[in-house]
Automatic annotation (TrEMBL):
Molecular-function GO terms, alphabetical: signal peptidase activity
Alphabetical keyword list: Hydrolase, Protease
Domain of life: Bacteria
CDD domains, A to Z: S26_SPase_I
Pfam families, A to Z: Peptidase_S26
Gene it is expressed from: lepB
Membrane-topology descriptor: Single-pass type II membrane protein
Family: Belongs to the peptidase S26 family.
Enzyme Commission identifier(s): 3.4.21.89
Location within or outside the cell: Cell membrane; Membrane
Domain Peptidase S26: 2-160
Major location (coarse): membrane
Source species: Paenibacillus hodogayensis
Catalytic activity from the UniProt record: Cleavage of hydrophobic, N-terminal signal or leader sequences from secreted and periplasmic proteins
Name this polypeptide is given: Signal peptidase I
Length: 169
C-alpha cells in the first residue's frame, strides 16, 4: 500500500509540476501538427530560462483555453509580417519548418500567409507567437504578444498517434 501511495504521489508531482500532456485542437499548426495529436509539454523549462525563437509552446490564451504556437520574436525585437516573410529587426527570418508549404503555395501562384502584421516591438517579458498555418491561426497578430507568465511550457514530443511519435518540428 505504501508503494502505491508513493507511486501515485510521484506521478501527481511529475504531471503537475514537470510535464503535462496537451491535445492539438484545430488547424493553426498545420502542416507540422494536426488535430488529435497528443504532446508532452515540459512545464519546468521556462522556470529556468526564457523561451527561444522557433520553440513550440503551449500558453493560456484565455482562462478556459490553451493555444499551441511557435515563438517567432523575443523581447525587445521588432517584428513585421509581410506575405510569406517574417522580418525580425528588419532581417528576414529563416523558417525551415515552413519552407515546403511556402514553396508549394508559390508554385500554385499564391502566398502561404494572407494575414500580415504591421511592425511591432515585442515588450519585455513577452514573446510574439504565430501558428504554422499562418492563414488560419489566432496568434499574436490578433491577440498581441504573450506574457512569459502565461506560457505553460515547451512541446517536447508527440506521443500519439504512434505514426507521429517523437516528431517535433
Amino acid at each position: 500500500m505504501k508503494a502505491l501511495v508513493i507511486a501515485f504521489g510521484l506521478a501527481f508531482l511529475i504531471r503537475y509540476f514537470l510535464f503535462g500532456s496537451y491535445i492539438v485542437d484545430g488547424p493553426s499548426m498545420k502542416p507540422n501538427f494536426h488535430t488529435g495529436e497528443r504532446l508532452i509539454v515540459n512545464k519546468l523549462l521556462y522556470d529556468i530560462r526564457a523561451p527561444k525563437r522557433g520553440e513550440v509552446v503551449v500558453f493560456h490564451a484565455t482562462q478556459d483555453k490553451d493555444f499551441i504556437k511557435r515563438v517567432i520574436a523575443l523581447p525587445g525585437e521588432t517584428i513585421k509580417v509581410q506575405g510569406d516573410t517574417v522580418y525580425i529587426n528588419g532581417q528576414p527570418l529563416d523558417e525551415p519548418y515552413l519552407k515546403e508549404v511556402i514553396e508549394q503555395a508559390k508554385q500554385a501562384g499564391r502566398t502561404y500567409n494572407d494575414l500580415n502584421a504591421p511592425e511591432l516591438k515585442v515588450p519585455e517579458g513577452h514573446v510574439f507567437v504565430m501558428g504554422d498555418n499562418r492563414s488560419d491561426s489566432t496568434d499574436s497578430r490578433m491577440i498581441g504578444p504573450v506574457e512569459f507568465g502565461k506560457v505553460v511550457g515547451r512541446a517536447e514530443i508527440v506521443f500519439w498517434p504512434l505514426a507521429d511519435i517523437g516528431r517535433i518540428h
